[in-house]
Amino acid sequence: AQSVTQLGSHVSVSEGALVLLRCNYSSSVPPYLFWYVQYPNQGLQLLLKYTSAATLVKGINGFEAEFKKSETSFHLTKPSAHMSDAAEYFCAVSGSGGYQKVTFGTGTKLQVIP
Amino acid sequence: GAVVSQHPSWVICKSGTSVKIECRSLDFQATTMFWYRQFPKQSLMLMATSNEGSKATYEQGVEKDKFLINHASLTLSTLTVTSAHPEDSSFYICSASTGRNEQFFGPGTRLTVL
Fold it and tell me: What share of chain B has pLDDT > 90, as a percent?
């Protein structure tokens, strides 16, 4: 069984400030982990994914996430927030090796204050 | 690459009618397609998984006779909401996978049942 917990349903940051969105996972098998972004009334876009290679994963739009097995975490960060980063972010987990069902977290809405 | 489209993007129907939503992988062949629904301010909930040429696998609690899924080709899956009721109003999102642990999401279809 797998699950993800996203801490904080809403996060507000000032433009130019550090973005930190928290995600903790639970998995009985080695996990693959994902971060997706969703803009209003749109589908999901993959930001980055961890698939058991490098623990520090760099994604699109300046985002990165670090897989920490000891903390069962996969937090998403960006050094400097931009207004266009305002969106909903979902952390997700699946098993590794071949196709596995993906389980999504409840999402974190990021607000960027000018 | 890896573009998934959905049609229609928005539909309003009367209670008791049926609505068909199409999901297409435009530039790749999808061995597996998924259907999710997303209620306002909530996460994505997997409804069913479909493989080309075989019956869909539905998640617990999803009525297979109400949500008919057809995966006729490697690039097309359809979801038909039969005898729709207001409680079926939701945002329906499909995704497609080549089997490499990454799903490519469509833009979603907003269904409103009056």
Answer: 68
